[in-house]
Structure formats: C-alpha cells, structure tokens
Amino acid sequence: xxxxxxxxxxxxxxxxxxxxxxxxxxxxxxxxxxxxxxxxxxxxxxxxxxxxxxxxxxxxxxxxxxxxxxxxxxxxxxxxxxxxxxxxxxxxxxxxxxxxxxxxxxxxxxxxxxxxxxxxxxxxxxxxxxxxxxxxxxxxxxxxxxxxxxxxxxxxxxxxxxxxxxxxxxxxxxxxxxxxxxxxxxxxxxxxxxxxxxxxxxxxxxxxxxxxxxxxxxxxxxxxxxxxxxxxxxxxxxxxxxxxxxxxxxxxxxxxxxxxxxxxxxxxxxxxxxxxxxxxxxxxxx
Length: 286
Prior knowledge:
Blueprint lengths: L1 E5 L2 E5 L5 E4 H4 L15 H9 L7 E2 L5 E2 L8 E4 L4 H6 L11 E3 L5 E2 L2 E5 L6 E2 L2 E7 L15 E8 L2 E2 H4 L7 H4 L6 E8 L11 E6 L2 E7 L7 H11 L7 E3 L21 E6 L3 E8 L5
Parallel strand pairs: 6-17, 8-14, 9-19
Antiparallel strand pairs: 1-2, 1-5, 1-14, 2-3, 3-4, 6-7, 10-13, 11-12, 11-17, 12-14, 15-16, 15-18, 18-19
C-alpha cells in the first residue's frame, strides 16, 4: 500500500504511482483528510484500505505532493550509520547507535521543491531511508520493530556544513533544519510491499552525476536495531519520522570537497519507493 499527502489531503496511491484516491471522500468521512492524523488510527486505516478499490483513482502532479508525515511529534535522525560514510567523515565505526539528533518539523517538505541556499554556506546532500512509526513503541525488541513501522519513504538530510561545525560543539539539529532541508516522499510504502525491507538500493545525483549509491543492508544498525535502541530511551509515537543515516559519497568527504550551488538539481531515490527532486537557488535578500 502507498499513501501520500496530495495538496494537503490524505490519498491512496496506485502501485504505479500515477493516480490517487482521496481517503476522506472514499471512506465517506470515516478517516480525516489530514495526512498526519491517519497514523494515530493506523491499524484501523490499513484494514479499511485493504478492501478499497483504486479503479476510480485520478491522475495527479508530483509537484502537488507534500511530506507523507508532515507534522510529526518527533523527527529523529541517526548519524554515521554506514561504515564508509563514517570513514569519509573521519570517525570510527560506532559500537552503538549513539550519534542521534533531531531535525525540526518546520524543515519537512514534499518531494519536488525549490530550496534556498544560505548565503556563504556549504550545503551538502545525504540521501536516507526514512521510517514512519505506525504504532507506539517503547522498550521494544528488534524482532518486533517492523510491526511498529507504518511505512518507508525517501528522505534528504540536507546539511549546512559551516553552521554544523560552528561554535564549541556541533550544531547538528540547527544545520540540518533550515527551510526546505528535510524533503521526504514521494509517498509512504508499507513494509509488506518489499521482498526485503532491510535491503533497498538508495542513491542520489547532482546534475545527472551520481554522488551516492548504496544498499540499506549495509546499515551498521538496521531499522529494527535503531527503533529498538531509540525506544529504550523514549517512546516512539505514531507518525514520528526517523531518518536512518546516509551512505558514503557526501560532498564533505570528497577531495576537493563539493557543495550544492544555485541552479543545481539533486535527485534522490530508493528502489521500490520513488524519487525526490530538489532545485537550488541563491539566497534571497532579507
């Protein structure tokens, strides 16, 4: 099953990703049009959606899609979760998933956007698999973790490196939460749609040049391991968004280093889900 946020309304999307069915209208008001509200009723919603006929779904434009989970109570992220990315960043492979931070909800956007680059900055790309929580998880084991996942989507953890490294301690959350720095989408795909949700290809390109390519089987801490670790410390709530880490190939780790520039187009993908497309523009006068 695929669900999406189409112009602020919850929709079911066909397997081909070409047409959508408005949930509030199709359910005769049983479920709200609010894309975020569905996660608090996820088991009930999925039971209803399983018997829904998508034959009357209508075509839509990708530019009208928003974030699949646009207003989560928590946006959690993990750093250094691929060995080669840890190496290119100058760090040892962590023994536990302790490099955790947050992205602020205000940075979340849909899959096709224009992003303003901060003046004088070094903005970098980080394609990531993103998991959205479908059932409250607190002190769960890894073996049960997938039962708490509503679905998976594509994310970009855009990062302003100068700001990230400014001050006496790193500014991860601030540097990764500027306007437009959290594109997600194009829709949410439930785990049962994948032959193996723990082994998905992901990557990104800038102006057609491949920058990152990897597989989620190479995560140091898999999605179940991450959710188990996070839930030991705090409850994960329905609709929470979890960025799971990026593979190697970021601009920071290149020689010479490479940064996004006005006019660049960044395309990010995960096989079996879809793609994001960001166009970058210069900072506008304040």
